[in-house]
Every structure is written in structure tokens, then in C-alpha cells.
Design brief:
2 domains, single chain, mainly alpha, about 55% helix, elongated, about 10% strand, 3 helices
């Protein structure tokens, strides 16, 4: 197994580099930066965290959050459920009325067939009766 030398890794991260921006026509140094790998990593990480934070803040504190699929305002969800219950009860009421009207039509046309219950009921005889 190869062991990594952590001291050499930290030394490489802390090595200093110079970044020079020069004017191409006059070869004049415009800006000079002294950087290390660690400082570049920290800078890029900070920029990433700031951009993510700004994006999250933009979504959370503005109406853009309503365009996210699955985001549901509590008031809107409650209204949706109430409308669903009301629609279901109205649909059930319409079905009851349709069956009632069909029954009335059958009665008015004379298409009513009544089946009487003709099953025999056998009552137990009472021991103390005078039959």
C-alpha cells in the first residue's frame, strides 16, 4: 500500500505562485497576484457557497417558489381539498337525482314490476298456548 505523505500535500497546497497580467503591446505588468493552491480553492469554494446562497434566497423570498413542481401553499391545498369534497358530494347528489327521476319515469309509464315477498314464516309454537 502506498502511504500519502500529508506534509508534502500541505506543502504543495501552500506553495506560492505568481499570476501576472501584462499588457500585450507594452509588456507592462498591469496586475500581479500571489496565489497558492489553497487560496484558489478557498476562493472558488466561497464563490460557490455565495452563489448557492443567493439562488436559494432568490427562490425562497420571491414568488419564484410557486413555479417549483410539488410546492404547495397550505391555503391552496386546503382550498383544493374543499373543492374536491364539494365536487364529490355534488356528483353523488346528481346520481341520486338521476335514479329518482328514472324511478318516476317508470312509475308514470306503468313499467313497475313489484315482487312481493312470499316466503313462509314459520313461527315456533308456544308451549303454554291454548291451541
Amino acid at each position: 500500500m502506498v502511504k500519502f505523505d500529508t506534509s508534502s500535500t500541505f506543502k504543495r497546497l501552500r506553495n506560492r505562485y505568481r499570476l501576472v497580467v501584462m499588457n500585450d503591446d507594452t509588456y507592462e505588468e498591469v496586475v500581479t497576484f500571489k496565489l497558492s493552491r489553497l487560496s484558489v480553492y478557498v476562493l472558488l469554494s466561497a464563490i460557490f457557497v455565495i452563489l448557492v446562497g443567493l439562488t436559494v434566497a432568490l427562490i425562497v423570498f420571491t414568488p419564484l417558489k410557486y413555479y417549483i413542481p410539488g410546492y404547495d401553499d397550505l391555503k391552496i391545498g386546503r382550498e383544493y381539498r374543499q373543492l374536491k369534497y364539494r365536487t364529490d358530494s355534488l356528483e353523488q347528489q346528481v346520481n341520486y337525482q338521476a335514479r329518482y327521476i328514472d324511478g318516476l319515469k317508470k312509475v308514470l309509464k306503468g313499467d313497475v314490476s313489484v315482487s312481493l315477498d312470499t316466503t313462509k314464516i314459520s313461527l315456533p309454537k308456544d308451549e303454554y298456548s291454548n291451541d
